[in-house]
Specification:
Layout (H helix, E strand, L loop, with lengths): L21 E2 L7 E5 L3 E3 L4 E6 L5 E6 L7 E3 L5 E6 L8 E8 L6 E2 L6 E6 L20 H6 L11
Parallel strand pairs: 1-9, 3-10
Antiparallel strand pairs: 2-4, 4-7, 5-6, 5-8, 8-10
């Protein structure tokens, strides 16, 4: 045993020393889209698309979590966040944001919220002209920027 008493060392988490990212209104809110839709089928892959600043680092947030649950740095304007095997715990409210390239402590405001509902089986669709179709983002320019078929209709 040592004859010298040691004082307890007070530790401070590293986050107390690092500045938190500040939102900057000059960076527009990103857009968030579910793919294939806002319902995730238990055990299947579900993808969330986030479209924002070019060359930015995108962050996927989940309500109730203080830290981003996923991050990506794609080359273009869109990040694709994937949940490989949807489970009941994946139900919830999601949003995304981005940090412009080279601006580690600046962030866009978060996107609008996306509510993910998880179901056990895919519901049967009624026979219609849309049967077998795939969800695409509403705006045709977004679909084309993702390399997806255009949703524009042409006059015959």
């Amino acid at each position: 045993p040592s004859k010298h008493a040691t004082a307890p060392i007070n530790t401070v988490p590293i986050s107390h020393y690092l500045p938190l990212p500040q939102t900057d209104p000059k960076y527009p809110r990103p857009h968030i889209f579910p793919n294939p839709g806002a319902v995730g089928v238990l055990g299947t892959r579900f993808t969330i698309l986030c479209k924002g600043g070019h060359g930015a680092t995108f962050l996927l947030h989940r309500e109730g979590s203080s830290a981003p649950i996923q991050r990506q740095a794609p080359r273009g304007h869109t990040a694709l966040f994937s949940i490989p095997h949807v489970s009941w715990v994946d139900s919830g409210t999601y949003s995304c944001s981005y940090r412009p390239r080279g601006k580690m402590f600046v962030s866009s405001y978060p996107s609008t919220f996306l509510e993910l509902e998880v179901v056990e089986e895919e519901e049967e669709e009624e026979e219609s002209s849309l049967s077998g179709s795939t969800f695409f983002p509403a705006h045709p320019d977004i679909a084309s920027s993702l390399g997806l078929p255009s949703t524009r209709r042409t006059q015959a």
